[in-house]
Structure formats: structure tokens, C-alpha cells
Amino acid sequence: MKFNNRNVFISKKAQIGQNVKIGDNSSIYDSVIIGDNTIICDNCTIGEPLPSYYSNEEAYINPQTIIGGNSLIRSYSIIYAGCQIGEFFSTGHRVSIREHSIIGKHCRIGTVSDLQGNLKIGDYCWLHSNVHIGQDSKIGNFVFIYPYVVFTNDPTPPSNTLNGPSVDDFSQVAVFSILLPGVKIGKHCLIGAGSIVSKNIPDYQLTLGNPAKIIKDVREIKSRETGTSHYPWPYRFSRGMPWEDSDFDTWQNDKLR
Amino acid sequence: MKFNNRNVFISKKAQIGQNVKIGDNSSIYDSVIIGDNTIICDNCTIGEPLPSYYSNEEAYINPQTIIGGNSLIRSYSIIYAGCQIGEFFSTGHRVSIREHSIIGKHCRIGTVSDLQGNLKIGDYCWLHSNVHIGQDSKIGNFVFIYPYVVFTNDPTPPSNTLNGPSVDDFSQVAVFSILLPGVKIGKHCLIGAGSIVSKNIPDYQLTLGNPAKIIKDVREIKSRETGTSHYPWPYRFSRGMPWEDSDFDTWQNDKLR
Amino acid sequence: MKFNNRNVFISKKAQIGQNVKIGDNSSIYDSVIIGDNTIICDNCTIGEPLPSYYSNEEAYINPQTIIGGNSLIRSYSIIYAGCQIGEFFSTGHRVSIREHSIIGKHCRIGTVSDLQGNLKIGDYCWLHSNVHIGQDSKIGNFVFIYPYVVFTNDPTPPSNTLNGPSVDDFSQVAVFSILLPGVKIGKHCLIGAGSIVSKNIPDYQLTLGNPAKIIKDVREIKSRETGTSHYPWPYRFSRGMPWEDSDFDTWQNDKLR
Fold first, then answer.
1. Which of A52, B9, B45, C212 is most buried (most C-beta within 10 Å)?
2. Complex ipTM more than 0.90, yes or no
3. Chain B touched by C170 (CB under 8 Å)
4. 3-state DSSP helix/strand/coil % of chain B, to nearest 5
5. Model pTM?
6. Which pLDDT tens digit goes with each residue over C162-177?
7. Which fold has domain B9-229?
């Protein structure tokens, strides 16, 4: 059904791996490198030129863009030149990723999400639909960001200051939360829905409200269903994670060896 | 101006009704059935294949997709295979509707809205711009959902549990409200702007805040302009509704006969 | 790389200025006037027909659409017929601008933003990503609107009343704020993140919270870095502003002469 090679543009300066599919109406620009077995769906733009392209097209050289192997980029997504993205990447539809976004392996980014560039995301991060990650943000590994979360970066708008938030490994930020500029979230935190976080949060803290306050240790949250805590979540959830075929402790110990 | 039959793809396995228009650059995939007089604008994708298509293209069979007659799908919208949508449906631009969304007749869904699939919406529902309806959600009839409302479904993220909210007939959810997993909103409710609803709400309740609290019966809300209550709204608003040419009581009585 | 004249549609009834570029897969419809040196990127729709087009294509006449010179419209944007937009306009990707939006010069509108039409925006306004501006809104000059801000307009939903908010010169509205119907924000105000504004706000007020309350005069906000106030911001920020090459007072005095 798809992949009819209809109205496809692939630059001669792009390097396309083995067994790659490029969808109809998609454009792959100069200096894009796509790893083996990756699928770029229809109406995508990979290696979108930087703003300087428009001011001097002749002198412009598109920076290298890397999309790792075994990835699935869904339709209408735009990935700018200068991005480096690891293998087993997947996106929803209409994702926008600006230049110089460095993203690890096994990451997922949901429909309509908007990554503003000059940011860093580790491995196995899941960003759901419609998140907005400002420039200068840092996201660790195994981080979940839920829909409509915003990472801000300007402490005194408007200004030329960029001071993005950071979220450390295994933490989660629930729907409609705002991380204010420069805020640092520790490991294994849970930021509740609709929170506005204005202060740094230590590891393992459930944080909630506007302004967000630390409520309790996530290990003390009782599940209504089980009566025990769901957290730290890696002991309860493994789908798509590297400990899927063993368990979290075994995987951690194997890593340390 | 439009509908120049430029770069259009229509599967031979699709059934296109009488007097249907398909816009430029649009794709209609296998097993799509489009009712009479429906307009699919440009750059749309109808019958988008499910994720399993990418893992085994040869064995894959696209499930049936039904778009009712007299509908208007605006440009850049994506409707997945396996959706069933009633007649007189209309969308804004860039709407995404994932697989197995069951939507009644005379519904409207606004620009950039994202329906995550495996959900059910009744008749005459208006979802405005940029709403996010998670899987397992249930929406009755004559329900209004305003911009940036999110229906969540995972009580202990991340997990494999799906427990979507439900909203019953004639209720409205104002901008930026979050319905937490499994919450049930009754009939004729009004959820105020920016509410986070964590508990079930009985019929006719105005509910507001974070966490949302029941404020009063909607029939007690005094309008600044008229001094009387606007609610229940079907007595004050009929545009596009089945009681448009009579009145709400007459229409209800006719139904009961 | 771009601008290969691939799958481009330009109406014979459009007027295209000198040195204009039209991107691949873009459509320019009847009665569009594009000023000199403007760049329309790929996959854009300029002069999108109004809803009445679909009910009577033969009788329909597309109203005039003006895009000023030296503008940059990024890919996948849709600008409806009947808009008037000044010179040095720029957009992000996937911007939607409905009919009869009147926008001044040197304005910027970010990715995925949704302007619902029948609204007015002055000069040098920056609307960031994913803002939603309802019909009947009024925005002055030098106004900054940050991501996920919503301008609402229906005081008793659903109704046929349209009463949009207004924001006066030099004011800013931070992320995730909601302006309720008919609210008037004065000059040089700062509306903090996540505010729900239900009352008119006089000039120079820092306003915050749900419901939003006036906190203090913006000139009394002490910056953590400098110990002095960043506000009024035109004395601290000039990038892209008409006082960029002199200073705010000089520019103001020159204007008065």
C-alpha cells in the first residue's frame, strides 16, 4: 500500500542504509545518514536545512544528520540537519525535531511533539504526544514525559538567556506539567499532573501542585489495586526495556560486571 | 482551485461513494469505504496501516475503515484503518485518529486533535482544537470538549493498565482540563477551565479547580448578561443540533414517542 | 536542496512578487498576493478557501490574501484566504491561520500554533509554539505569547457569543496561561506560567495563579542574577526590535518627533 516511490526526493549527498524504506512525498536532504532497516514513512522531511540556508543558499552546507538503524519515523515528521539519533528510534506523526538534538537509542517521541533543538536525551526515553522540549534541556535515560509537558528555558522573558531544565534517569513527568528554567529533577521522581516545578527535586520524590511541593517518597505511594507501591517502576514495568527478558536487578548487576 | 487530481493515490481495494472528492496529495488505502458526498481535502491519509504493517508487509491485511457520507475531512488529517465514523463528520486540519476509534454521526473534531484509538464517541460531539483523547475513553452524545483537554488512562505510569475516563451525554469539559484515569463524568456537567478531575462527578455538577471540586448545580449558575442560567444548555443552544428546527423539549418528546 | 519546483500549484489568479520562492508540494490559491523576497517553504497552503467553497464551488470567489514581503513561511503551514499579513513575517512549521486574521509587520508565529481567524495582531509580536488564539482576540504591538497559551471567547459554552480577550502593547503571557473571554490585559504586564486570568489587569502588573491574582508591579521584580528588575523589558532586550540599533528611549523619542 505504502512506499510506492511516488514524489520522493533523495539527495545524492545522502547515505541510505540497507533495507531502508522511504515513503511517498518524503524529502531526504544533503548529508543525511540513515541506518539499516529504518523506515521513513510518507510526507517526512529528514535533514531540514537550518535557518542560515535561507539567507545564503549558495554558500550553505547542510550539517550531518544521523538516524540510527531499525527506526520508524511516522508520517509528516520533520527532523532538522545536525541531529544525531540512535538506533531503534520511533516517532508518532508530525513530530518536529530542530537542529543539534542529540538523542540516544530506543527512544520514542509521540505525535505533534516539538523538540526545539540544542538538547540532549539519553537512551530508552519515551516522550508522549505533544510535549514541548525547549533548547538547552537535558533528559537522562529511561525517562517518561507525558502529553503536554513543557520544558521552559528563559528565566526573565524575553531575554537571550537559555537555561533549560534537566531530568535524571528513571524519572517521569505527568501530563500538563511545566518545568521552569534551570530546574533539576533527580532520579526516580514522579512529577504529578499539572505541576509547575520551580525548585530542584531530589531523587525518589513525588512532587505535585502549583507551585509544586514534595509530597512523599515514591516508594511510599500505595497502589489502590495492589496496596503496595508501583515505584521504583523498573521492578513493575519492562515492556521495551533492556531488562524485558530478565529482571531489573539482574540487568543492573550484569551492567556492573 | 482544489481537487485537481494531482498526486492522488486511491487503492483499488477502496470503495468510494457517489459524488466524493479526494484532494491533491491524498492517499486512500486498502479497505476504506467512503460514503456519498464526502469531501477528503488535500494531503490526507485515510486507512493508515496499523503498526503490524511495518513488521510484515506481505502478510498484512488492512482492516476496514468507514467514513460516513456528507463528511468533510480537512487537509493533513490522518485516519487509521479500523475506524468507524458516522455521517456528517467534519475535522479541522492535521487531525490524527488512531485505529479502532468508533465515532457516531454529526461529530466535529478540531485542528491538531489526537485521538489515540480504541475509544468510543457518540453522536453530535464537538471536540475542539488540540484535544488529546487516550485509549479506552468513552464519550456520550452531545458532548463538548474544548481545546487542550487531555483524557488520561494509566493510573500508575508507566504500566500496562488502560483505564480511560468517560463523559456522559450533554456534558462539557473546558480548556486545559485533565480527566484522570477511570474518572466518570455524569450528564449535563460543566468542568471548568484548568481543572484536574480525580473523582467521579454526578449529573449537573459545575466542577472546578486542582484538584477539582464540585461547586454547584449548573442550573444555579447565573449568567452576567441575562441573570438566569445558561444550563442545561440544550434549551439555549441549537446550532447544528437535531432540535435546531424545533426546540429541545419537542425533540425529546418526539424521540420518546 | 529545496525549491525544486516539484509538485507545485500556483493559481493563475495569484500575484507573486519579485524573487519569491515557492517550495515543493505547496499550493497557492486564487487572489493571493505575495510580496517581494518572501519564501514559502514546502508543503504549504496559502489562500486556503473558506468553508463556503465546499458548499458551492462554482459560485465561490476566494477573498484576497496578502502575505507581506521578506517573509518566511515554514513547511506545512496553512494560511486561509482573507488574511492580511505584514512584511517580515515568519512562521514555524504546521502553523494554521484561519480567515480574516489581520497581522502587522515583523511578527513571528511558532510551530503548530493555531489562529482561529477574525482576530487582530499588531507589529513585532512573537507568538511561540502551540498557542491557540480564538476568534475576536486583539493583540497589540511588541507582545510575547509563550507556548500553550489559550485565548478563549465563549463565556457560557456552548453559545453563539464571541467575546475575545485583548492584550495591550509590550505585555507577555507565559506558558500554559488561559485568558478567559473578554479579559483585557494592560500594557507591560507579565502573566506568569499556568495562570487563569478571569479579570482585567491594569498596566505593569505581574499576575499569577488560578484564579490569577495581581502580585506586584513588574518593575519591582528582582532578577536573581542582577538584583535589578528586567522590566520594562524593552530596556533589556532589543533583538529583532526596531530599537535594536539604538536604544528604547531614543527610538521612542524619534517616534514622537
1. B45
2. yes
3. no
4. 5, 30, 65
5. 0.97
6. 999 999 999 999 999 9
7. UDP N-Acetylglucosamine Acyltransferase; domain 1 (2.160.10)
